[in-house]
Structures are given as C-alpha cells and as structure tokens.
Amino acid sequence: MAKITIVHLLLAITASKNWYLHQLDVNNAFLHGDLSEEFYMLLPPGFNSPTPNKVCKLQKSLYGLKQANVVSFTALLVYVDDVILTGDNFDEIARVKAFLDSTFRIKDFGDLKYFLGLEVARSSAGIYLCQQKYALDILSDFGFLDCKPVKTPMATKVPRDASAELLPDNTLFRKLIGRLLYLVSTRPDIAFAIQQLSQFLDQPTITHLQATHRVLRYLNGCLLLVSSFLPLHHLWKANKQTTVFCSSSEAEYRALASTACVIQWLRSLLRDLHLAISGPTALFCDNNSTLQLAENPIFHERTKHIEIDCHLVREKVHSDVIKLLPCSSKDQLADIFTKALAAVPFQIMLSKMGLLSIYSPV
C-alpha cells in the first residue's frame, strides 16, 4: 500500500492545480507477477487428472504464495492494487488507462470516491477526506453508538495509577487501538491520545481501557469531522522520542531535525513531479533557545554532547532548504500532538488545521 503521506500529497497537488482525479482497480493483482524462481504445487482437490502423481509448475504468481505480494508489488509499484490517476490532460489519462488495461485487466471507477478505506469528497473549494463509515463500524463493534459524547479525546489530567488493575485479557484493548491507529490517517485530532495509549499494549490496565472508551465517546460526537485538502498539504505525526534529553530545547532541536528530513523528502518528491518549490520552506518553533541553537554553528559547553545528526537542521538552514521562524506557544499547531488540551484551545487548533464538518458551507 502506498504511504498515506504520499496519498495526502497527491490530493493536495490535485486540489491546488484543479486536476482530474480518477480511480482504477487491478483485477487479480497477485496473478500478474512473473516468477524468477521455480515453484510447484499439488493438484487442487476435485481436479481429475490422468496423472494424479504429478505436480503443476507455476508460470505466474498465485494467491497464497509467499512471494506473491512481493512479486506483485515489484511489478505494480506505481499502481499497486488500487490506482489513483491525476493530471490536467484528460486524453493523456485515457491513454494511460488503455495502456494499463492492455497489460493488466483493470476496472475504471471514474472520479475518485473511495480509496484505501478513505471516503473522498470534492467541491470547487478543495478535496476532503473522511472515514465516517470506518468510525461508525468501530463504534458499532464495540457498542458505543449510543454513548454520551465528550468534547475532547483525552482528559487534560490523565491519572497514572501504578496500582491500577491489569486487564485479564488485553486482546480487546489491542484490537481497539489497532483499529483507531488507521483512523489517525484522516483524524489528527485523536493522534496524541492514540499515541499515548499505544505505549500500554503489553500490560494495559482498567484506566487505559477507560481512556480508549473516552476516545470512542469523542468520535461519537464528531463523526463528520473531515480533513480538507485545499492548496495545502497536511502531514502529521505523534510519537514518543526515544532519546533522553537534558532540556526541552534539546528535545525540540531533535524534533526540528526530524521535521527537516521530512521537508527535504517532500521537496525532492515534488521536484521529481516537476513541481519544485522556489525558496525555503518555513518551519515554525516556539522555543527561542532551540532557534538560537539551530542558527548558531558554534558548539557550546552545554550542547557539545548533542548527536551529530541533529545538526542537520543547521545545514538545511544555511542551504536555504528551510527557514526557521518564531511563533508564540498559543499559535503552535503542533501542541495538539504533544499534550492533552482543554475543550476551547482544542477546538481552536482543529479549525486552524482545516478539520471541519462535511456539511459545512464550502
């Protein structure tokens, strides 16, 4: 499956350029791969053969073959199983469809409506992603369709009771977290809550289960919240840093370096698509000490222990790949991925990130 980040980027480009957006599906994708090794199989039950003691030599990949997924992915790297086609020339899109159909049997679904479990809507204002059906299925499967909704997915003060009772069976907790993780692909509002709860998959307690129930109650109150892709691209991530730092400035410096790597990758990807960006990419930070550390090439006594790879951000600043800009803490959108916010600031962050109701005027 294509990285969801690339899907988001493609939709953002399509929205900003007002390109056509079509969807295809490759029939029996695993049956098209060529095999580089010899494989044999027993005759299937019910197949009458005059030579029952012989086996069949496979000419193509087959469902159930360990190499089938790899072979198919190698041959269909660009299209995979579900295909998105976009561009400004309708005739060229038609020619690509004809070429693919001559090589693989495909289904043409026309305008993109549903892809990788994501519901896609389009208007003159942009493209919108939603997982309402997926969220409804989760609520239905876990019995939360009629629950009382809450305004935030996580309480601002999360109890950390080390003596809390462990769940006798963590299967249900793991299953719920696993399904919610995929929902994060269009719902950054629950990313921090799910990231926090994912740390306790091994030994979850009753408290952790109650916290996941709060996420479900939150979802029940805002099922129609969608991600909008106007001439903007959204990329989000919430994970725990594995390195222990001596200060918050160092921690944010590491985060800046990680973000700089992602920015470099996105710029390279856009360049490959002949959509190169002119000028540096703005990168906001609300920590003045971190900004000074990133822009000052001098090593100080208190920072000489920082790993070399973190200083990548300095290189990107000096080469005009990124431009560091200060911002106030109240305007830092990344806060929604680093802490549990109260209802009012949480809703403000959602509106700034382009999350809106699918029935809102566009």
Please provide a written account of the structure:
The chain is globular. Mean pLDDT is 82; it is low at 68-79. It has helices at residues 4-17, 68-75, 90-103, 132-141, 171-183, 191-197, 206-221, 248-272, 288-295, 312-318, 343-352; strands spanning 20-26, 40-41, 56-57, 82-87, 106-111, 114-115, 118-123, 126-130, 225-229, 281-285, 322-326, 355-357. The chain has three domains: 4-35 and 55-116, no CATH class; 131-225 and 338-357, no CATH class; 248-336, no CATH class. It is an alpha+beta fold and 362 residues long. The strands form four sheets. A five-stranded antiparallel β-sheet has the order 6-7-8-9-12. Strands 4-1-5 form a three-stranded antiparallel β-sheet, covered by helices on one side. A two-stranded antiparallel sheet has the order 2-3. 36% of the residues lie in helices and 15% in strands.
